[in-house]
Structures are given as C-alpha cells and as structure tokens.
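Handout, section B. The chain below has 110 residues.
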Amino acid sequence: MTAGSSPDTGKSDLKVFVLPITHPPIVEIDTEATAAYIRLRDTKVVATKPYGSEKGLVMLDFDANENVVGIEVVGQQEFSIRELIKQIPVKTSDAVLNATRYVAADLQPA
C-alpha cells in the first residue's frame, strides 16, 4: 500500500496518548493486502512510527507539527472504521464515524 507509506519504520518510541478524530476520515481499503489506511488529514507525511498493537500491524503517519495525519492497519479482515480503530486509543463521536468515506486504495506510485 502506498498511501502514507514511509521508510522510517523503526521501533516505536510513542508515549501513551489518545488520538482525537474530529473530522470524518477517509478509509482507503486494499483487500488483497488485508490493509487499510485511515486518512485523517490531507497533508505531507514526514515520519511514520509503529504503534504497539496486539492484533496486526499499525503504523502512524505524522506531519511536520507531529500531528497524526494517517493510520495504516495491516492484517485486518474487517474494514469498518469502528473495527479499524479498536487497536488505537481514539476520542471521537458517532456522528464523525458515521460520516466516514470508504474508497479503494490508490495502488499507483506517487
């Protein structure tokens, strides 16, 4: 999956946090790779860090101001937003989650 992928994927040094989701995300789904990318903001990714998850692989993408702009989840069989965010501590509302858009992953190189 190319959306938000970055070569900076070393060990996680993330501290415990709760990720606020205030705007409806866009979920890019790649069923062949059993992966999804949750796009929170449309901005340049400057760093990618792993997030410790008990199920599958979760990577967080950050912008220059260290805001989380995207979440890549690999190893999922279900792609609903509620299922995808179970692995990450988030604070959001049902209204925001209900407005989530789902699209096919853009597999073309940038």
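Note. Confidence is low (pLDDT under 50) at residues 1-12. Compare this with the example in section A.
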